Amino acid sequence: MGYKIAVVGATGNVGREMLNILAEREFPYDEIAAVASSRSHGMEIEIGDTGKMLKVQNIEHFDFSGYDIALFAAGSGPTKEFAPKAAAAGCTVIDNSSLYRMDPDVPLIVPEVNPEDIDGYTKRNIIANPNCSTAQMVVALKPLHDAAKIKRVVVSTYQSVSGAGKGGMDELFEQSRAIFVGDEKTNQVFTKQIAFNVIPHIDVFLDDGSTKEEWKMVVETKKILDSKIKLSATCVRVPVFVGHSESINIEFENELSAKDAQAILRDAPGIMLVDKREDEGYVTPVECVGDGATYISRVREDPTVENGLNIWCVSDNLRKGAALNAVQIAELLGRKHLQKG
């Protein structure tokens, strides 16, 4: 006996990826409902490469009663309206938006990092999925924190345009094409030209000069991993379609050599270590697309602090940063709390 799953926001980048991953990982479902806004009502969407087509249902008329899990990839607005209704109907919500991440009654989960926290989901019947840049970073930090206890992290991100949705990807494509053919360039999604450029601005600015994306990385890391970790982030949008990269500087309480860190990371769940000190001995975002792993390269000691390391971290943001992590949460929820049989 399998689960009844609803994918909300099924026609978007992350929703489609959720359907792909449910099929790839052979998630034990009996039924999947594709749910989206009224604009998508009636269109057909495939579950991965199974050949099975789903007719998209209008969220405004969808009944969550009888469904076990709803994977939400619909943004904060629709989530605020419909997630509580799904939860009240007995359907556990796994939400990809930022709406519930810092709610003290909602667990914020990365299964490789804090699986035990999922037990708190019963307070609201909602589980939050972290920000895409936070998710891959804490996967990398967790085994190192266990080994030597992290004091401080300074991270600079290089985030792909898919983090801004389909509109962001379309804008990069259209601007690139316009530059080559001599057409006029326009900015609609991003504040400045993204083609052949980088923009040190993701989400809105806060009073202290940081952006909300940078704030998310700080507070989410503290909630998921350790509230005592100090973290400074600079988040940058780059002209890459899919795949977030991060340069992470870590200061530890205890000594940890680069060689020992490599050994720890090599055996850590969810991580692929590709770290050869030679041409092509590292991973770039192009190479991580379509993969669920968090790739680590360029592990080296930082001589400017007593116990410091630098690492390079790359992951497919539509997968581990969003859809895959949500499905992994669903798998964890099933193992621990919603067993079928």
Relevant terms:
globular; 8 helices; 341 residues; 14 strands; alpha/beta; six-stranded mixed sheet; six-stranded parallel sheet
Please give a structural write-up.
There is one protein chain. The protein is an alpha/beta fold and 341 residues long. It is 30% helix and 23% strand. It contains 8 helices and 14 strands. The strands form 3 sheets. Strands 5-2-1-6-7-8 form a 6-stranded parallel β-sheet, sandwiched between helices. Strands 10-9-11-14-13-12 form a 6-stranded mixed β-sheet. A two-stranded antiparallel ribbon has the order 3-4. Helix 1 (13-24) crosses helix 8 and helix 3 packs across helix 8. The protein is globular, with a radius of gyration of 20 Å.
Q: Nutshell version of this structure?
A:
The protein is α/β, with parallel strands linked by helices. The protein has helices at 13-24, 76-88, 132-148, 166-181, 212-224, 258-266, 285-288, 319-336; strands at residues 3-8, 29-36, 44-46, 53-55, 57-58, 69-72, 92-95, 126-128, 150-159, 230-237, 244-252, 271-273, 294-301, 308-315.
Write the topology of this structure.
Layout: E1 3-8, H1 13-24, E2 29-36, E3 44-46, E4 53-55, E5 57-58, E6 69-72, H2 76-88, E7 92-95, E8 126-128, H3 132-148, E9 150-159, H4 166-181, H5 212-224, E10 230-237, E11 244-252, H6 258-266, E12 271-273, H7 285-288, E13 294-301, E14 308-315, H8 319-336
Parallel strand pairs: 1-2, 1-6, 2-5, 6-7, 7-8, 9-10, 12-13
Antiparallel strand pairs: 3-4, 9-11, 11-14, 13-14
